[in-house]
Amino acid sequence: MIEVIHPGIYCSVQDEGRFGFAKIGIPMAGVMDQFSAHLGNSLLKNQKTDALIEVTFGMAKFKFNIDTFICITGADFSQKLNDDFINTQEVYKVKKGSILSFGKRNHGFRTYIAVKGGIQSEIVLKSRSFSKEITSKIRLEKGDKLSILAQKFIEYTRFSKVKIYESHFLNPNLECFPGPEFDRLNNSQKQQLLMSFTISEDNNRVGYQLNEVLENNLAPILTSAVMPGTVQLTPSGKLVILMRDCQVTGGYPRVLQLSEVAISKMSQKIRSDHVKFVLNGQ
Amino acid sequence: MNFELSYKPFGAFAILIEWPSIIDEVIIQDIVAFEKEIENKESVLEAVIAYNSLLVRYHEPILNVSLKIQELQVLYDLKRPIQKQSQKLWEIPVCYDLSFGLDLKEISRQKKQPLEEIIALHSSVDYLIYFIGFQPGFLYLGGLHKKIHTPRKSNPRLRVDKGSLGIGGKQTGIYPQDSSGGWNIIGKSPVDFFTISNEQPCFAKPGDRIRFSPINLNTFYQIEKEVSNGTHILRSKLL
Fold it and tell me: Closest by alpha carbon to B192, among B166, B226, B168, B158?
């Protein structure tokens, strides 16, 4: 079992998300940075679908009341296991009673704690991802206890580690596809769309609003499907990049669609970071 | 009847299928029927219905878009009209008391119609459920009488109670959870539209219909009690 000693700013349990229920208005949810989450699970030889703890902007502290193996991926917040700094993207043996904590930010926004066998929290509609109105909790709080599977240290298991993929955190380019309403933009709007943007303070698991304003004369659309990675052009001319907790439908023109890799990269950006949309194949 | 549909890729994993851009009962029935052919295909992760569109998301990236579109076109030609027996009319109790209908008086003033007339216009229609979105269990309904179309409030309320019944422009609907909201509130229903612990968290589905049946305050509180005890049974009939 893992005990939450300090929940930091925002921590939740996430897996790949909840599918097949958009029909009743249920958001997909799931890990924001799928690339880093998959990496953590695969380094531990877990299933791709195993649940992890998503830590937003460090500061959290956890106590392990059971022997296990962990792997930290995503953002680097000078993480420590007891008194020792540990690397991201490397598997560590964790003894019962150990404390995992986070300190100064080195890069990124969201850190994943992958645990051997995955976090065993409640499954609601086929997923463990925390989600408003769906799961009993939407964030981890002090004192929460998360079950994990017991592990034996007897046999020495060799795990690999991988080099940190720097561009995942530092590169501003977001690969994307034209959205369904892209062709309604005129040439000057299309050009503006491919310039550099900065991230506003209005950003969370639902979406990231960008600061710069685009001229916007598009009519609203009849409410239609949106998904994580959809870039909407709002009436004020601001762009919103929808993220994992977004609603299933929306009424703003959908000008771009981020690739899966770009959604993962976006998840590691913070306020004032620069981003640039790069159309696939250009 | 078959429509001229537009198929376009939406990202690497999805195809967006679009019908003419109007809100129309024939169109939504056609979308629902098409979705039935698609929903159980193994390659499909999720299908999302809206007024004039169907988004089909796949597990794997689409390598050959035109081939995928051809597959969908074959399914569209195969689709059967939805069986009437599977569609229901749900009777939803609503209390239009002024203590719940916060904007009823204002609508009555704007429309120069007595309160009773507004309530009568609102509760005499069998609304069609087009799709569910916005929040878990939020039904997009069609059929609101023209006389009571009312623009959204310019200052949205920060908190609208769960169960509140609103009018937003040409649309009417019930907030399934407490939320912020800009619709004009005209009443409240004691019924749950989304119960996560139920096998089917939302009783209604696209293609079903809803009729609002006016109740007084006493009945409201009585039904509210039944709902919280789990003893309330919603009335419905096959269409």
Answer: B226
B116/A contact by beta carbon, under 8 A: no
Q: What is the pTM of this model?
A: 0.92
Delimit the CATH 2.40.100.10 region(s) of chain A: 171-279
A222/B47 touch (CB, cutoff 8 Å), yes or no: no
The predicted-structure confidence for B63-109, as pLDDT tens digits, reads as follows: 999 999 999 999 999 988 777 668 899 999 999 999 999 999 999 99
What ipTM goes with this model?
0.93
DSSP code string of A26-64: ------S-HHHHHHHHHHTT--TT--EEEEESS--EEEE
Rounded CA-CA distance B193/B150 in Å is: 24
Chain A neighbors of B134, CB-CB under 8 A:
25, 247, 249
> Which two tokens mark B47?
């299908």
Beta carbons of A222 and B140 less than 8 Å apart: no
Task: Work out the minimum CA distance from A93 to partner chain B, whole angstroms.
Answer: 34
DSSP letter, residue B82? P
In the CATH scheme, what architecture does the domain A171-279 have? Answer: Beta Barrel (2.40)
Q: Mind spelling out the 3-state secondary structure of A4-27?
A: EEECCCEEEEECCCCCCCHHHCCC
Domains of chain B (ranges; CATH) run 6-82 (3.30.1360.40), 86-238 (2.40.100.10)
State the Cα–Cα distance between residues A222 and A225, nearest whole angstrom: 10
pLDDT tens-digit map of B119-167? 999 999 999 999 998 889 999 999 999 999 999 888 889 899 999 999 9
Chain A residues within 8 A of B21 when measuring between CB atoms: 221-222
Nearest to B134 among A28, A134, A247 (CB): A247
